[in-house]
Amino acid sequence: ELIILISSFNILLSFALPNGLTVKDDVFIATFWVSLAAGSFLSAATVFERDAQAGRLELLSMLPCGLERALLAKYCVFALLLFTAIIVVTPLIMLNINVERPWQWLLGLGAASLSLAAITYVTASFTSGTGKGVAFLGLISMPLIVPIIIFGAAYMRQTELWHETLSFLVAYAMIVIPIACMAAASSIRASF
Length: 192
Hints:
Blueprint: H1 2-16, H2 25-44, H3 49-54, H4 56-61, H5 67-96, H6 102-126, H7 133-156, H8 164-190
Helix pairs in contact: 1-2, 1-5, 2-5, 2-6, 2-7, 5-6, 5-8, 6-7, 6-8, 7-8
């Protein structure tokens, strides 16, 4: 779902560019980050719903390693899939923008995808008991995702590899990931 959303947006925008519509690189980068956040909402909506319907959440809570560690492993897989989708879509972005250092882009996208995955992961666990999880997902997590969009778009405009904006993205991810695993575990325990 994430690959489809981001790639369809970029393909439509790339068709609009040669037809006389000029879009600044800053606007394109900002809209990419917004579509990345929206795509992470769509992919996180079913993270816990399938497990709740199949009864696997109860099995996860009975593991000897603890629910938090089991959810950390599940988060790592979710973050890896999100970053894989970003790697697949990155060449489409580079068709529209002159990118001198693509590895710098991937570094910024990787740091931001850790935070995006953690925030959407924990809000998906909050909404796992409700039937309308996707509607609440955006409302709950949007205030937490706005700084990622702002600092991620600012990092894409930088020419230096290590900038303050990348430091913020990495620090934000390191703060959000443990909180997300603990909050997801407590919300899953409360849903039993």
